[in-house]
Design goal:
The protein is an alpha+beta fold. It contains five helices and ten strands, in the order H-E-E-H-H-E-E-E-E-E-H-E-H-E-E. The strands form two sheets. Strands 2-3-4-7-8-1-9-10 form an eight-stranded mixed β-sheet.
């Protein structure tokens, strides 16, 4: 009588051969790896310098109540920002940098930081922007997600322009990332126009900027 059949003997090992699907998966894996490494070792992106000549103009109707912020507002800012950003803001307040906030029902809906000095060093991009003669610079702005799409950023740009004009400034500059189309559109509606493009590149800790100015030669920013 025949014994039980051992199925192991009837199973053939089929060799795995790399096909088109395997090559595509490998390529996707390599591309993903390069993207991840690129975030830490290499970056390249353009930003736009936009400028506005400050003139006397009637204030439009606003949806937010605007005022200067201070150290006492860190608790309100902490409702929409991480702890690391709050530490940065504390240092800015201690350095007497100027923050303008727009409030709605007691909550901060938008904030922006303004210079009151002669130059500003962007440590993230390693770029110093010259604010002479009589130029102002708006260098940090944020809108609470629940208030986006309502014109808060445009309103903040207009309020910042009026404030800088009271300080005796005649030009207000703002730098906006190239891909932020809504922010660039809001700046255009507020009367800003493109002045230059900065192509920022970074390899590890080495940073450099390529500045492309307007063809008319108007020098609104210096390297």
């Amino acid at each position: 009588m025949d014994g039980p059949v051992k199925m192991e003997k009837n199973i053939r090992k089929v060799p795995v051969r790399p096909g088109p699907i395997g090559r595509k998966s490998f390529c996707r894996l390599v591309k993903s790896g390069f993207k991840i490494l690129g975030r830490y070792f290499y970056r390249s992106f353009p930003v736009v310098i936009m400028a506005k000549r400050l003139r006397e103009e009637p204030p439009p109707p606003t949806i937010l109540v605007w005022r200067k912020a201070g150290l006492d507002d860190l608790a309100l800012l902490g409702e929409l920002l991480p702890a690391g950003k709050i530490r940065l803001f504390r240092r800015r307040f201690q350095n007497r940098e100027y923050c303008l906030v727009g409030l709605k029902e007691g909550k901060i809906a938008h904030y922006c930081w303004l210079t009151a000095g002669e130059s500003y060093l962007d440590r993230e991009m390693n770029y110093r922007i010259d604010l002479l003669p009589a130029k102002g610079y708006l260098y940090d702005a944020y809108t609470r997600p629940a208030f986006r799409g309502r014109g808060c950023y445009q309103e903040g740009l207009l309020e910042a322009g009026r404030l800088q004009r009271r300080w005796g400034r005649t030009v207000l500059l703002v730098i906006i990332s190239w891909e932020k189309l809504p922010a660039r559109a809001a700046a255009l509606r507020a009367g800003f126009r493109p002045a230059a493009v900065i192509l920022h590149r970074r390899i590890l800790a080495w940073k450099w900027n390529l500045i492309k100015k307007r063809s008319d030669g108007e020098q609104l920013a210096d390297n």
